[in-house]
Design a protein that fits this description.
By secondary structure, this protein is an alpha+beta fold. It contains 9 helices and 7 strands; from the N terminus they run αββββαβαββαααααα.
Length: about 280
């Protein structure tokens, strides 16, 4: 059992954009000063990563869009974490102590355990504000939260649960074969959502406005998981494909492209930046 647990732990050294490691209890970041640097979507000052802080852990499932959303946020803010795969369908007592709801992701920051992906991401945004993933303007923040809810609720219910969960989760958790009716429904509904994304992107540079935000990471988390099983028609709208290419090329996205799920090899285009 110990050997299996060890094999499921991956030290995930985040290499992308800008930010700092997060201490618990919302203490001020103990940086050594300010470094100046640039990354796509953010230019300006960034704090150095504090030294000698304990390793944080993210208990996750590789293809969970909610876990991917948190992983992208952590990576963009350069918060170093150890990834620990969790069998949420067969939860251990330790996992239920970390989150009595029995769901992933669970982020452990020193002595604190955080759950619920949106709450985790907004917490990280507050304590590590650079680079920003939420706008300052109240109306703009509302739009980001609206779109996060759109993908985490409506898209998840109509598409992710009908395709990813039927094709992958059922086999992994031993729940039988995919329900063809659900798969057919999900394949039909994703077209509506891609059309809606195209409508948004015809008016904006990013989904929620002219700056990349948590809304883009939320959408990309769901679509990347579906792209792993070839369930996204990127040729339906060039503007959506171009948007995803920008997200996919970010350094914070690279660890997701390296994911491998036993029994489910990804298609060749999945990790290809020129897909």
């Amino acid at each position: 059992m110990a050997a299996r647990a060890a094999s499921n732990r991956t030290k995930h050294r985040v290499l992308p954009a800008d930010g700092a490691l997060l201490p618990s209890e919302a203490r001020p970041l103990r940086g050594r000063g300010i470094d100046r640097g640039e990354s796509e979507g953010y230019q300006g000052e960034r704090p150095f990563q504090p030294e000698s802080l304990p390793m944080n852990r993210l208990y996750h499932v590789p293809l969970s869009p909610f876990c991917r959303k948190v992983r992208l946020t952590l990576a963009e803010k350069r918060i170093e974490v150890e990834l620990v795969e969790e069998r949420y369908w067969d939860p251990s007592p330790d996992f239920l102590r970390r989150n009595p709801a029995g769901k992933v992701p669970v982020l452990r920051l020193e002595s604190r355990s955080l759950s619920e992906s949106q709450a985790i991401c907004e917490y990280l945004e507050e304590v590590v504000p650079s680079p920003p993933l939420m706008p300052r303007d109240a109306d703009a923040r509302y739009e980001v939260r609206r779109l996060c809810a759109w993908f985490d609720d409506k898209f998840h219910e109509e598409v992710t649960s009908k395709l990813l969960y039927e094709r992958v989760n059922k086999k992994i958790t031993g729940q039988g074969y995919p329900d063809s009716k659900n798969v057919k429904t999900g394949a039909a509904r994703i077209k509506y959502h891609l059309d809606y994304m195209a409508w948004l992107l015809d008016q904006r540079r990013w989904l929620a406005g002219n700056e990349m935000t948590l809304a883009d990471f939320t959408a990309a988390a769901h679509l990347s998981a579906l792209d792993y099983i070839s369930d996204v028609d990127w040729n339906r709208h060039a503007v959506v494909k171009d948007w995803y290419a920008k997200i996919k090329s970010r350094p914070s996205f690279r660890p997701l492209l390296a994911d491998q799920v036993p029994g489910f090899p990804p298609p060749r285009h999945y990790a290809d930046l020129d897909f």
